From TrEMBL:
The keyword Phosphoprotein does not apply. The gene is Cyp4a30b. Its main location: endoplasmic reticulum. Belongs to the cytochrome P450 family. One of its GO terms (biological process) is arachidonate metabolic process. GO terms for cellular component: apical plasma membrane; cytoplasm; endoplasmic reticulum membrane; extracellular space. This is Cytochrome P450, family 4, subfamily a, polypeptide 30b. Its cofactor is heme. Keywords: Endoplasmic reticulum, Heme, Iron, Membrane, Metal-binding, Microsome, Monooxygenase, Oxidoreductase, Transmembrane, Transmembrane helix. It is found in: Endoplasmic reticulum membrane; Microsome membrane. The chain crosses the membrane at residues 12-32. GO terms for molecular function: 16-hydroxypalmitate dehydrogenase activity; alkane 1-monooxygenase activity; arachidonate epoxygenase activity; arachidonate monooxygenase activity; heme binding; iron ion binding; leukotriene-B4 20-monooxygenase activity; long-chain fatty acid omega-hydroxylase activity. InterPro entries: Cyt_P450, Cyt_P450_CS, Cyt_P450_E_grp-I, Cyt_P450_sf, Cytochrome_P450_Monoox.
Length: 508
């Protein structure tokens, strides 16, 4: 046998041996992962024995029903008093809570948001108030709180009024067409304009600019894609997701959103290069949101990085216009489907505002019945249906049930607001629930969450809701479209799968 043949045989056996070793290592790794999976699942099952699984989970795909999260929650709220277990896929499980006492315990702690899920937002909105945890979150929260001081909010009412009038003028031109109007898109543009002008001193007309529509579309796409990713076990890995069609669409939409906020920052920085504009800034008693970001300094004397500024900008653009647009849209729908309450609100608004040409912050405090209707609509249709926390330490609830450190908890504000044990006829629109003197239970109504991480812009948002409702009712009667009943779906923000269509009848 030649040396060449011997060498060839040796190489073959060498490769064969190497393949055997690789196969053996692969098998051992598979067995190790399987054992880890089994042990972790047993730990989960043992930890969750006190909580009901509903419906019974399938071992791989869990018990999450496609596009039926809210319907599933309502069924579970009817059946189980405080909580249930929701299996997503494999070994991913969460305890869903909708009981005020449970809410009070979790929101009274300082548990971080679930890193795995909320990190999906990071390429879009960066690490601003929504995603930050710990010391840096506290620093940013304390730094930005002055932007929502009463004296800052007071002149914003006039800006809100102007933005709403632009939207209503557009609607007035469409009245003669006698066809239902999909209101969410126009309301999104209106809330975006309000946010841009109030928080970022923007001078343009957002509702009339084409690039604003592309931003609105990008935000819609981003929230939908994040919603899909959270539910897809194969898309949890960043590399795999970036190679998928959804991942490519997501990162493209991120670029559109970033271009928008970066343009606003550039424009504001350019304005502040002007001496006259800088002098105006120095004379301001209180700064708007973007001013605070641009001139803020951390505890060590450093200015915020461009990345931090954009993160807070993107966060507030998302939370400040998207969630508010959801709130206003559902309030309009609730009033359209309950004409007796709509008319009573209209009469109250007329008695306070007259023709609505002049609206002040004091006027907004004089609308008790309208405020009751707004709150009842927010109860039925909370703009943010839920939030999540990852337990940083073990927790024991008032009824004795407990969870270990590291467990994931979903706070279902939608389930809480629809819990029949808290309110009789929970599915009925009844503003008297919020009448002065009506019995209240703490942590039973949380459209803006609660605790240290409650919505920093709560009062700003409530003012905007009141302005939009008041001015709209002065000019239009809102009527439902019986052929297009909204189908509620939770896609980060509460939306309708088939749009929110209303008839707008001009009042004489």
């Amino acid at each position: 046998m030649s040396i060449f043949e011997l060498s060839h045989i040796t190489n073959v056996f060498g490769i064969f041996g190497l393949l055997q070793v690789v196969s053996l290592l692969g098998l051992l790794l598979l067995l190790l992962k399987s054992a880890q999976y089994y042990l972790h699942r047993q730990w989960l099952i043992k930890s969750l024995q006190q909580f009901p699984p509903a419906p019974p989970p399938q071992w791989l795909f869990g018990n999450t029903l496609k596009d039926q999260d809210l319907q599933q929650i309502l069924l579970c709220v009817e059946k189980f008093p405080s909580t249930y277990v929701r299996w997503l896929w494999g070994n991913h499980a969460r305890v869903v809570i909708y009981d005020p006492d449970y809410m009070k315990v979790i929101l009274g702690r300082s548990d971080p948001k679930v890193v795995r899920s909320y990190s999906f937002f990071a390429p879009w909105i960066g690490y601003g108030l929504l995603l930050l945890n710990g010391k840096k979150w506290f620093q940013h929260r304390r730094m930005l709180t002055p932007a929502f001081h009463y004296d800052i909010l007071k002149p914003y009412v006039g800006i809100m009024v102007d933005s709403v009038h632009v939207m209503l003028d557009k609607w007035e031109q469409l009245v003669d067409q006698d066809c239902p109007l999909e209101i969410y898109q126009d309301i999104s543009l209106m809330t975006m304009e309000t946010m841009m002008k109030c928080a970022f001193s923007y001078q343009g007309s957002v509702q009339l600019e084409e690039n604003s529509k592309s931003y609105i579309k990008a935000v819609e796409d981003l929230t939908h894609l994040i919603y899909l990713r959270v539910r897809n076990g194969f898309h949890q890995n960043n590399t795999i997701y970036s190679l998928s069609s959804n991942g490519r669409s997501f990162y493209h939409a991120c670029q559109i959103a970033h271009k928008h906020t970066e343009r606003v920052i550039r424009m504001r920085k350019a304005q502040l290069q002007n001496e006259a504009e800088l002098e105006k800034f120095r004379k301001k008693k209180r700064l708007d949101f973007l001013d605070i970001l641009l001139f803020a300094q951390t505890e060590d004397g450093k200015s915020l990085s461009d990345e931090d500024v954009r993160a807070e900008m993107d966060t507030f653009m998302f939370e400040g216009h998207n969630t508010t647009a959801s709130g206003i849209s559902w309030i309009f729908y609730a009033l359209a489907t309950h004409p007796e309450h709509q008319q009573r609100c209209r009469e109250e608004v007329k008695s306070i505002l007259g023709n609505g040409t002049s609206v002040t912050l004091n006027h907004l405090d004089q609308m008790p019945y309208t405020t009751m209707c707004i709150k009842e609509a927010l109860r039925l249709y909370p703009p943010i249906p839920g939030a999540s926390r990852e337990l940083s330490s073990p927790v024991t609830f008032p009824d004795g049930c407990s969870l270990p450190k590291g467990f994931l908890v979903t706070l279902s504000f939608y389930g809480l607001h629809h819990n029949p044990r808290l309110r009789p006829n929970a599915e009925v629109f009844d503003p008297s629930r919020f009448a002065p003197g009506a019995p209240r239970q703490t942590h039973a109504f949380l459209p803006f969450s609660a605790g240290t991480r409650n919505c920093i812009g709560k009062q700003f948002t409530m003012n905007e809701l009141k302005v939009a409702v008041a001015l709209t009712l002065l000019r239009f009667e809102l009527l439902p479209d019986p052929t297009r009943v909204p189908i509620l779906v939770s896609k980060i923000v509460l939306k309708s799968k088939n749009g929110i269509y209303l008839h707008t009848k001009k009042l004489k």
